[in-house]
Amino acid sequence: MQILEEILKKTDGRICKHCLGRMLSKTIEGEDNVSRAESLNIELNENECIICGNVFNKIDDELFNKIYDKLDFLKVEFDSFVVGSRIDNEIKQRDEEFIKELNLDVEPIKKEINRIIGKKLENELKKEVNFEKQDIIVNVNLIKNPKVRIQINPIFIEGKYNKLVRGIPQTKWPCRKCKGRGCEECNFTGKQYPCSVEELISEHILKATNGYEAKFHGAGREDIDVLMLGSGRPFVLEIKEPKIRKIDLNNLEKEINDINQGKTQYHNLKFTNRNRKAEIKVSSPDAYKIYNALVECDSPYDKDKLAILSELNEIHQQTPIRVSHRRADKVRIKHVLDLSCEVIDETHFEMTIKTEGGLYIKELISGDEGRSQPNVADKLGVKAFCKQLDVIEVSDK
Length: 397
Fold this sequence. Notes:
By secondary structure, this protein is α+β, with helices and mostly antiparallel strands.
């Protein structure tokens, strides 16, 4: 009663049931804040609430019709949602000051607004409010004339890919000349290469989900002239603003692989969470990669010296010249975990090498003008370079 008297004195009775019930939410039981206020049987001047400025009156049928119209227009498929709201800063400030002056422990006004809207939408749409993971966010702007905006949250699809031909980059490359705007050199496509591992899957997923845009997150990447064989390289495909979320990934996987036969293949597609796109980019201490390299020497090599290569262990690599324009220039220390060789002829041999992720194989072979130490060329005493490279395995760890 003492708190109630202070509230009524400070507001001179000019307070709505929403705000009064909210201020007493920790002291009076009730189904909601309005029912708490009504249980007191006090006459209030609700027409001019000095705290909220009667913002709760804007939560009416007209507002909900705007929400329903927007959802119908977008034709968005969803099972879960949350509500977000914007109100005038003066209202927020008055509310915070009032709570502070009376030393009350109550929720802010926006939480009440979001709950009222959320409860009605739950009942009307038979959908679930989920604060941890939601398909859409219903944003309501209650400043002046109410406005509604629907934010469609992305979906994330995890899988592995194989690249079966050379000359295909992992992701879309903008044309070097026009920077993606389109010019004669790129045939007005805006692309340096006609297709990519990313595009060969994303165009089909975008069509199935009616999404706005796709973003490809790979667990590392191979060079454009390198094959990705074995069980494949892990990736996460992020689909932004998907209007359709329930898609049959098994059927899509088969369809996409049939279309891209001989170029790329995608495996074990499944839905995953947002965190996964960052997780696959972080290598654990146990992560490794296995490569098969065709090495060519400029003169005959001593076949007996191939055995020395198996002793390669700690490798110090300064950022390779070929990527120095886009990567920080520093020395990285990586390790060779296993290495074996097979003679082809007097100037060629095949090398299978297991390494920590991040070790540059081409530079390990050539030495990269001394930037990679030790290296294959120095060990053999001849100039050597990687003529062909395939990734055989990328560990899941």
